[in-house]
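User: I'm new to structure prediction. If I give you an amino acid sequence, what do you actually give back? Let's try with this one:
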Amino acid sequence: MIQRHTHWLAVVALGAAATAILATPAAGATTPTGNRHGDLFPTEFALPTGFLPEGIAIGDRPVAYFGSRADGDIFRVNLATGAGKVISQGPGTPSVGMKVDQRGRLFVSGGPAGDGRVVDVRTGAILASYQFATAPTFVNDVVLTPAGAYFTDSNNAALYHLPLGRHGRLPTQDGVVTIPLGGDWVQNPGFNANGIARTPDGRALIVVNSGTGALFRVDPATGVATAIDLGGETVVNGDGLLLDGRTLYVVQNQLNTVAVIRLNHRGTQGTVTQRITDPRFDVPTTIARFGDRLYLPNARFGVASPETATYNAVAIARP
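Assistant: Good question. You get back a string of structure tokens that encode the predicted 3D arrangement of the chain. For your 319 residues, that looks like this:
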């Protein structure tokens, strides 16, 4: 989903308001790791021990939401201070890709549980839950459009659509639409569809295939996928996507890299303009923007003793 924000230097007052919201951390809350580059906002954020982060969502305030692969908890972090706390207890299954809408609703992908849910970020209450598929499945990421939410499934050649009603009304389980992927889409062994975003013109969706590194423009009405011409480039291990105007950021998790792609208006062609690395990257998975910064959680896939490992998220300058 395209998210437009004012420069973060212009939101100090807003940051102060957010600081007041989270000024008194709850028991077990984390505190900031410090301001690495001397800016007003910290650039590293501690997450709970054993949290196993995956997804991140940021709305129009300096607040980030992270999902846990361990138990599905939702952890909120104040970007102005770095302080955070769990705001919603998970269902015991993972929370992976996430997006937050203007109504304060967090749409969460359920990974191997094959489901998705919608969480009220003010109260932490689960507003609705949906079962999309049964094993083998991995509901991986989600994007929000005026027509509703679209979820990817890394184990199945399909998207799942939650059409929103008037005033953003959530559908019932019967309203879930399964959209088979076709056209140029080829389902291979292992992980396939992962991150998802909108095209610059808003008329279609962009889906990355993690295994092949190909990007596809997908018609949301038919599921017909057309390979995006990247001039021979690929984004292998492509995970979270972020569209900003005509710039698409693709997190290449195991490569500790963010590919920066300039798209045409329809999203049928793109040019890889640079690949960003950072010594603080430790298998980043997803990406969100606030102001002139990009924020990424370090999933640390393959770390020894993940249940006792430390985790964090980092911020980098938006190129």
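You can read the tokens as a compact description of the fold. Here is one thing that stands out. The radius of gyration is 18 Å.
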